[in-house]
Automatic annotation (TrEMBL), chain B:
Single GO BP term: amino acid transport
Record keywords, A-Z: Amino-acid transport, Cell membrane, Membrane, Transmembrane, Transmembrane helix, Transport
Organism this protein belongs to: Acidisoma silvae
Cellular localization per UniProt: Cell membrane
Protein name as annotated: Branched-chain amino acid ABC transporter permease
GO molecular function: transmembrane transporter activity
Record-level GO cellular component terms: plasma membrane
Ranges in coiled-coil conformation: none
Family as reported in the entry's similarity comment: Belongs to the binding-protein-dependent transport system permease family. LivHM subfamily.
TrEMBL record, chain C:
Name used for this protein in its record: Branched-chain amino acid ABC transporter permease
UniProt-listed InterPro entries: ABC_transp_permease, LivM-like
Organism: Acidisoma silvae
GO cellular component: plasma membrane
Keywords: Cell membrane, Membrane, Transmembrane, Transmembrane helix
Length: 255, 293, 356
């Protein structure tokens, strides 16, 4: 079985401060893998390394067993890595549908003149991308807000719009950075259901950061625990729960 | 060889004048993260106020005090009318607002004080002396001394006093500074006032050399490349940036100018700054921000 | 809806066919078209056309050019006039040196040459952003105007360095009357407005706004940042170049390097800020404001009896105060500009009779 994602010996530091230290783990195809650990453990930094926002000091990222060399956000998007951010990274002054449509921008083939003068491939592409965006809006149940300006929507809906933008291009690998932060119990249950649907029905491999242990245990197949940039646990939710190092490093500090 | 040295020295001296203007920008940038386009207008306003009072026969020290008073009033008004309503808006919005502000200040200053060119004589001869073969005037030496003194005073002010420490806290982390009880509007008013005094000193020195007139407000444009090279958040950077711009501009005029049949000093500094940005986006002394996402 | 249907993508949604009907919007566009291309050329006298309408349209077009760059793509420029100058000098030289080319072709080529200039000075935007972009754009402003002034070839070695259009005609139809120049300006602006609209509504405009709102997120989402930024510079400079040519030859008649000084760049910037960033029609509102203010001031000051206090020279100082204060006010209260203020008012007024 190929690994959808393999992190191999990755280290990262900021101005001499270690954020990640020789970190290695792999995520199987079709898995939901949760990254957990206390604040500052390096979880978001790791996602940023995987999709090229940060450049690792050393180590490799492999996607589908292929070395992902010289990662940049643009290359990551191209090879099918979708991403949401911890604090919403939406285009605040644009409508919901326009936000989602940007997720499809790189699949377009029409050139500048075709787009500017509405010639050639313009209308076909336009129709197809509209339909794809509408489908994803319906799937995440936000069609009613299609034309709303994103910055004016409540937080929970914004989170869903961001998920829609990441999903619309049907990525192979989806990185979710605290998708449920700031949500109430019902909203969390609802979004968990969406994430699980995406995973089962589209076969998308998902790596997510989440603090709510209940959500993590219910949703994920695989848990990786980080503490101070090092891996302290890796296994099924059940294994991780029993791991004494994890209890000391993570659960211990919380309770 | 002496010719080359003289060109460089003349350039460095001109650069010191740029640096004086640039220091005012750095103060405000550190306190509020704003590139204050209106700093050039403040230079014009202060020089114009001073020279008008002086022409009415007031003694030098009184003109200075009254002008400083005018600048403090202006700073309080700016904080209240422009900065406070725009708090937490994007740096680009604030930049545009200071651009609007510069037009208001220039217009008001000239409406009230007139558009005539005023001569300003600080009583320091600006005739080149021969010092070991170097062409340097008393005025040049005076400018250099004032710059050094100003940097020393600012270093003391911001290193040792309460206000200075608060300012550094604000520059470091605005939210944290507010949460420990530092009042942002208060800091802004003080910093803008200090920047006003710096503008006054720059205005007097520039005004002495080229007359007090509208073109003084254009020194703001030369401060831009100076700050880009030195880094927006560093006073030593502003000085070094000023010296680099002054010296290279002068060298370019002498050595590149004849090759292209024209004075290149109109644009040389901007091209230099652009090239610099591509190599060192944070300037020589600027801190590299860690991008958080 | 289930995700299996999603994966199958049978795509029928989103294509609601609409029978053509006379909506309020269509009527408004129709009335505007009749007014602009039918009524104004007939009833407009020379003073109105020359002093008010032509400069408003041309400066509005320039504002549109900068707005595409700044309002949509979020890239600051203080050097708009440099690209207007490039368009003007290119038009002059093309008309002079390639007399077989018809005027529309010349204007398009001049716009493309200005676009090339925009491409070159836009390159630094791939590494820097925000107000740091004032450095390369000021470099463009001072370098390009210096270039046209220093190398006399650009003004065909005329002693005064002034350029004037050798001919303003289209297929034998003379456009040098004020009506002819108005039609040239109005048609060019109309076509370019359509082009801008199409670009904004396409993937390109969406990507520009995404870069403006959050560049990191845009790159993670897959927006080709470098290509879109450079496209923004080229398109913006194309519009500015055409506007510069019209300003020089359809409005002023003659021009030189000083016509396109830094002051002109600031005027264009003000038009964008007053008209509203990320708006197309707002630029013409902003331009009207810039063109009308000095005229209104000239009339108002004597009427209000202020001329005893304010001499003619001082009136020129009131203008920057008004523009500057208005910009600050709009940034604080109405970031979408005067146009949005107007359209809200108009919408309120147009709903009002229906309420009864």
């Amino acid at each position: 079985m190929t690994a959808a994602l393999m992190v191999r010996d990755v280290s990262l530091s900021f101005l001499g401060v270690r954020a990640l230290t020789s970190l290695s783990f792999s995520v199987a195809q079709g898995e939901i893998c949760a990254l957990i650990g206390p604040n500052g453990a390096g979880k978001s930094s790791l996602l940023n390394v995987i999709n090229g926002v940060y450049r690792a000091d050393s180590g490799d990222i492999l996607i589908d067993d292929q070395l992902f060399s010289h990662p940049t956000p643009a290359r990551a998007a191209k090879i099918g890595i979708g991403r949401t951010f911890q604090n919403n990274a939406l285009f605040r002054r644009m409508s919901v549908i326009d936000n989602v449509l940007t997720g499809l921008t790189r699949q377009g083939k029409a050139g500048f003149l075709e787009l500017a003068f509405r010639l050639g491939r313009y209308s076909t592409e336009q129709r197809i991308e509209r339909a794809q965006a509408e489908d994803i809006l319906a799937f995440l149940d936000i069609s009613a807000h299609r034309d709303a300006i994103v910055g004016q929507l409540p937080y929970g809906l914004q989170k869903r719009v961001e998920l829609a933008r990441a999903l619309v291009a049907l990525p192979k690998l989806l990185l979710l950075d605290e998708p449920m932060a700031g949500m109430n119990k019902n909203e969390k249950a609802e979004l968990s259901q969406f994430i699980s649907d995406v995973n089962r029905q589209l076969g998308t491999t998902i790596v997510l950061i989440e603090h709510d242990i209940g959500v993590v245990m219910g949703l994920s197949h695989h848990v990786v625990v980080l503490d101070y940039g090092r891996k302290v646990g890796d296994g099924t939710p059940e294994e991780v729960r029993r791991n004494p190092d994890v209890i000391a490093a993570y659960l211990g500090t919380r309770h | 060889m002496l010719f080359l040295v003289n060109i460089i020295v003349a350039g460095l001296l001109a650069g010191l004048m740029y640096a004086l203007v640039a220091i005012g920008f750095v103060l405000i940038y550190k306190a509020s993260g704003v590139f204050n386009f209106a700093q050039g207008a403040m230079v014009l306003l202060s020089a114009l106020t001073f020279v008008t009072l002086n022409e009415h026969g007031l003694p030098f020290w009184l003109c200075f005090i009254i002008t400083v008073g005018v600048l403090i009033v202006a700073s309080v008004l700016i904080e209240f009318l422009v900065l406070r309503p725009l708090v937490n808006r994007s740096p680009d919005t604030l930049f545009m607002a200071t651009l609007g502000l510069s037009f208001v200040i220039e217009g008001l200053a000239q409406l009230v004080l007139g558009t005539d060119v005023h001569q300003l004589d600080l009583g320091i001869p600006d005739v080149p002396l021969k010092l070991y073969g170097l062409q340097v005037s008393d005025f040049d030496l005076f400018t250099a001394a004032v710059s050094i003194l100003l940097v020393a005073v600012l270093a003391l002010l911001f290193g040792k006093t309460r206000v200075g420490i608060s300012l550094r806290a604000v520059a470091d982390n605005t939210l944290a500074a507010q949460s420990i009880g530092i009042r942002l509007p208060h800091i802004w008013r003080i910093v803008w006032s200090v920047a006003g005094v710096v503008a006054l000193i720059a205005g007097l020195l520039w005004g002495n050399r080229q007359g007090v007139q509208f073109s003084l407000s254009l020194v703001v444009l030369k401060a831009m490349p100076v700050l880009i090279i030195g880094g927006f958040s560093s006073i030593p950077g502003a000085i070094v940036g000023g010296l680099i711009v002054g010296a290279t501009e002068n060298l370019a005029d002498i050595y590149i100018g004849p090759l292209v049949h024209g004075a290149v000093s109109d644009w040389f500094a901007y091209i230099l700054a652009t090239a610099f940005l591509l190599i060192r986006p944070n300037g020589l002394f600027g801190e590299k921000p860690i991008q958080r996402v | 809806m289930s995700a299996s249907k999603l994966a199958g993508t049978a795509h029928l949604g989103g294509t609601v066919s609409q029978a053509p009907r006379l909506s309020g919007r269509r009527v408004a566009i129709l009335v505007a078209l009749i007014l602009i291309y039918g009524v104004i050329p007939i009833v407009g006298n020379d003073y109105w056309l020359n002093s008010l309408i032509i400069p408003t349209i041309v400066m509005g077009l320039a504002g549109l050019g900068l707005n595409l760059l700044m309002g949509y793509a979020g890239l600051i420029s203080l050097g708009s006039a440099a690209f207007m100058a490039t368009g003007a000098f290119a038009t002059f030289n093309l008309l002079l040196r390639l007399p077989i080319l018809p005027l529309p072709v010349v204007l398009i080529l001049a716009g493309l040459i200005a676009g090339l200039g925009g491409l070159i000075f836009g390159l630094p935007s791939l590494r820097i952003r925000g107000f740091y972009l004032s450095a390369p754009t000021l470099a463009a402003q001072f370098f390009l105007t210096w270039l046209f002034q220093t190398y006399h070839w650009f003004s065909n070695n005329s002693m005064s360095l002034v350029i004037s259009a050798p001919r303003l005609e289209f297929f034998g139809y003379d456009l040098s009357s004020s009506r002819g120049r108005y039609l040239l300006v109005a048609l060019t602006a109309g076509l370019l407005l359509l082009l801008a609209f199409a670009i904004i509504k396409s993937r390109i405009g969406r990507d520009w706004m995404a870069i403006r709102d959050m560049e990191v997120a845009a790159s993670v989402t897959g927006v080709p940042i470098a290509r879109r930024k450079l496209q923004a510079y080229v398109v913006s400079s194309f519009f500015l170049g055409v506007a510069g040519a019209l300003w020089a030859f359809a409005y002023l008649g003659t021009a030189d390097s000083n016509t396109f000084s830094l002051d002109k760049s600031f005027q264009v910037l003000f038009i964008v800020l007053i008209g509203g960033s990320a708006s197309l029609l707002g630029n013409f509102v902003g331009a009207a404001f810039i063109v009308l203010t000095p005229i209104v001031l000239d009339i108002l000051v004597p009427v209000l009896g202020l001329d005893t206090y304010i001499d003619q020279g001082s009136i020129a100082n009131i203008e920057p105060i008004i523009f500057g204060a208005l910009i600050i006010f709009l940034l604080i209260k109405e970031p979408d500009g005067l146009a949005s203020l107007f359209s809200r008012t108009i919408r309120a007024l147009s709903i009002w009779p229906l309420r009864r």
